[in-house]
Specification:
12 strands, alpha/beta, binds manganese (II) ion, three-stranded parallel β-sheet, 48% helix, binds beta-L-rhamnopyranose
Length: 396
């Protein structure tokens, strides 16, 4: 690798940060069961502690996303305790995720529920979540809705859409000027006939209706197989409506596997579209990069470190595409040249340059090995094992 290539990698990495999900450190499973890990985090404090380790060793994960029902058991009152974790563990609260799917009341939906009193309850939870975000100095409130129906004819799709518009608009009214609202979409699960916000077009319409501080969140696992995700990204960028990502990989559905484990080229193409947009327009879109994964079988902290390493590699490769040459090749319809520019960047081994970058920041060259050497896992396994043997987390 020549010096200018490694410069490009380093400059790109300087700008790259990725937020970790608190729930990625907790015991999770499938609808068939959970395999309990003795070292899994069961309290919010333990989640901060584990995320702090990932940040300590990678240097690029200063924030932890929180799920209100799982991480703020006392609602707004929980913020006093959580505030103290930032200094203690070196990571600050990131996006706040209202939980509008777990309570019994939400059986037929939250903002899309035909019962106005349940919609009102969902709105109250949303307002509390915005207040939690304000107290924790979190900018983004990130909405994912499980709303939908399982059988044809059982719900009025148009009415539900209007209820969503109304409630998201009312939620938006409660934001502080510096806060944002991210609207996530997902085609199916848990609803298997219709989902109220099933795709990026629906999320876009609802985000626009909500107000100027609302943007769309792309969870890479929330698409039908073979859907062109980078095209969605390109469209959202050009509409100034891309707010952030939930990264994970999948083979079949919303599998929540490790980023880049199945199709790293997909993530590369997403990063490339973002870089290309920046190069062409000179704009710096405000995009929150976040992980949304559930490590059922892998060790949770190791899986998270592995994810961050992969994210950095793919982001760095995305920065190696020669945008000027690519623009020329596209204009001339020089197909092989254009495609090769992407393929060559993707094929570049950026790992040595990333190691140098880590070294220059005083970070371990191999964060995974450093974690294994640190003794942290042994310590928490001893501390948490007895408690975890009978503790089953609430997350699916
Ligand atoms: C959903 C969606 C949300 C996440 C929940 C746990 O499928 O991806 O972002 O918060 O799962
Ligand atoms: Mn998600
Ligand atoms: Mn998901």
């Amino acid at each position: 690798m020549n010096a200018s290539t490694s410069d490009k990698v380093c400059t790109a990495l300087d700008t790259f940060r990725i937020e970790l999900p608190s729930w990625g450190f907790a015991n999770t499973g499938t609808r068939f069961g959970k395999f309990i890990q003795p070292a899994a985090a069961t309290t919010t404090e333990e989640k901060f502690s584990d995320a702090g380790q990932v940040h300590l060793l990678t240097g690029v994960c200063p924030n932890v996303a929180l799920h209100v029902l799982w991480d703020c058991p006392r609602g707004v009152q929980s913020t006093d305790e959580i505030k103290g974790f930032t200094d203690k563990y070196g990571v600050a609260p990131g996006s706040i995720n209202p939980n509008l799917f777990q309570d019994q009341e939400y059986k037929y939906g939250s903002f899309g529920n035909p019962d106005p009193s349940i919609r009102e309850r969902a709105l109250r939870h949303t307002r509390d979540s915005i207040e939690i975000a304000r107290r924790l100095h979190s900018r983004d409130i990130s909405f994912w809705f499980a709303d939908g129906s399982n059988y044809p004819g059982t719900q009025n799709i148009r009415h539900r859409k209007e209820w969503f518009k109304e409630a998201l608009n009312q939620s938006h009214a409660g934001l502080s000027p510096d806060q944002r609202m991210l609207v996530e979409y997902k085609p199916f699960e848990p609803a298997f006939y219709h989902t109220d916000i099933a795709d990026w077009g629906m999320a876009l319409i609802l985000a626009r209706a909500a107000g100027p501080q609302a943007k769309v969140l792309v969870d890479t696992g929330h698409h039908y197989a073979a859907q062109n995700i980078e095209q969605i990204v390109a469209w959202l960028l050009s509409e100034d409506m891309l707010g952030g990502f939930h990264f994970n990989d999948r083979r079949y559905a919303d599998d929540d596997l490790t980023m880049g484990s199945i199709d790293p080229y997909q993530v590369f193409r997403i990063f490339h579209e973002i870089r290309f947009f920046q190069w062409e327009t000179g704009k710096q879109p405000d995009i929150a990069y976040m992980v949304d994964q559930s490590h059922n079988l892998k060790g949770k902290i190791e899986a998270m470190i592995q994810t961050v390493i992969m994210a950095q590699q793919l982001f760095a490769k995305g920065a190696l595409v020669d945008a000027k040459k690519l623009a020329g090749a596209q204009t001339n319809c020089d197909l092989i040249t254009a495609e090769s520019l992407l393929q060559d960047a993707f094929a570049t081994d950026v790992r040595p340059a990333i190691q140098d970058w880590r070294d220059s920041k005083g970070l371990p060259k191999d964060p995974l090995e450093a974690f294994r050497q640190s003794g942290y896992l042994n310590r928490i396994t001893k501390e948490r094992a007895a408690k975890n043997s009978h503790n089953v987390s609430s997350y699916a």
